[in-house]
Design a protein that fits this description.
eight-stranded mixed β-sheet; 8 strands; single chain; alpha/beta; 288 residues; globular; Rossmann fold; 8 helices
C-alpha cells in the first residue's frame, strides 16, 4: 500500500509540473503571436526585441521630436494588453515624444485566455526582469532622466519592481487606475508598496473609474502618508473612465505638468565627455 501511495504522489507531482510547463508554454505562445503581429504593423517607432534573462520580449521605442528633450518614459500596459494598446497606452506612447519625452513601451507578461487570471501574480518576477532590461536599454542609449507610467496592473508591477531595487534608476512614477488585486496569487500588497515608495508618485484616477480604484483612493493617500513620501500626489480627472476614453489630451497634459516639477530634465543625453560608465554618472542625472 505504501508503494502504491508513493507512486501516486510521484505521479501527481509529475502531472503538476507538466501542467505548469504546459500552461507556461501556452502563455508564451499566446504572447509571441500577439507581439509578432504587432511588430509587423506598428509604424513610426523602432521595434526592439530586448533580452530579459534569456527571454526576448517586444519593446516600442519612439524618439522625442521636440526641440527640448526632457527624458525617457517606460510604459507598462494593463492585464491582457500589449505594448501599443489603443486605449491609454498608445495615445501616451505617440504623443509624449511631441513634448520632449522619448517613450519605450514594453510588452508585459500576459496570461492566455484559457488560463486563470489569478496566475498574473506569478508573472511579477518576469515583469521585473523586463523592466530592468528596459532601464538597461535606455541607459545604454545614454538616457538618465527615466520615468515610468503604468496603467492598472502595469502600475502594480512597477511598484513591485521599485520596492526591490536598492538603487533607484527610475526617478518618478505615474500610476493610472491603480487598485488592489485580491484575486491574484501570490497576493500583491499595493498599499504596502505605496508606503515603501521612495520616489515621486502621481496617482491618477478618473471620476468614472472602476469602483475599487475610486473607493481605495483614500487608503492609497494614507499609505503614502504613513511612508512619509512627501513626493506623492493624487489626482482625480473629472469625467474620465478607467481607460481615459476621449480624455487622452487631458490625461497627457496632467502627466506632463507634474513631470515638469517631479522630473525636470533639460537634455537627457549625457555630455560629450561621457565616459561610458553609467553607474559612475548618476550624479549627472539632476543636470540632464
Amino acid at each position: 500500500m505504501r508503494k502504491i501511495a508513493t507512486l501516486n504522489i510521484v505521479f501527481l507531482l509529475i502531472m503538476g509540473n507538466a501542467l505548469s510547463v504546459a500552461a507556461d508554454s501556452v502563455d508564451r505562445e499566446w504572447e509571441k503571436r500577439t507581439t509578432e503581429k504587432l511588430a509587423e504593423n506598428v509604424k513610426g517607432s523602432e521595434v526592439l526585441w530586448l533580452d530579459a534573462k534569456g527571454e526576448d520580449f517586444l519593446a516600442l521605442f519612439t524618439s522625442q521630436t521636440n526641440e527640448t528633450a526632457h527624458g525617457a518614459v517606460i510604459l507598462l500596459h494593463a492585464m491582457g494588453g500589449h505594448a501599443d494598446w489603443p486605449q491609454t497606452i498608445s495615445p501616451i506612447r505617440t504623443t509624449m515624444p511631441e513634448h520632449g519625452w522619448t517613450t519605450l513601451s514594453i510588452q508585459m507578461p500576459v496570461i492566455a485566455p484559457e488560463n486563470q487570471i489569478e496566475d498574473y501574480g506569478k508573472t511579477l518576477q518576469q515583469a521585473a526582469d523586463r523592466i530592468k532590461a528596459a532601464v538597461r536599454c535606455l541607459r545604454e542609449r545614454k538616457f538618465l532622466n527615466i520615468v515610468a507610467i503604468g496603467h492598472s496592473f502595469g502600475a502594480a508591477t512597477m511598484l513591485n519592481y521599485l520596492e526591490k531595487e536598492e538603487k533607484q534608476k527610475i526617478v518618478a512614477l505615474v500610476t493610472l487606475g491603480l487598485q488592489e488585486y485580491p484575486f491574484v496569487k501570490p497576493a500583491i500588497d499595493i498599499l504596502g508598496l505605496i508606503e515603501k515608495s521612495k520616489i515621486p508618485v502621481l496617482d491618477i484616477y478618473g471620476s468614472r473609474d472602476f469602483k475599487n480604484v475610486i473607493n481605495q483612493a483614500p487608503d492609497r493617500r494614507l499609505a503614502a502618508k504613513k511612508g512619509n513620501n512627501r513626493q506623492y500626489a493624487q489626482l482625480e480627472i473629472e469625467g474620465a473612465d478607467h481607460y481615459y476614453n476621449r480624455m487622452e489630451d487631458v490625461l497627457i497634459k496632467r502627466i506632463r505638468g507634474w513631470l515638469d516639477k517631479a522630473a525636470p530634465g533639460m537634455s537627457i543625453m549625457v555630455n560629450e565627455d561621457f565616459d561610458g560608465n553609467l553607474e559612475n554618472n548618476d550624479d549627472k542625472a539632476s543636470d540632464q
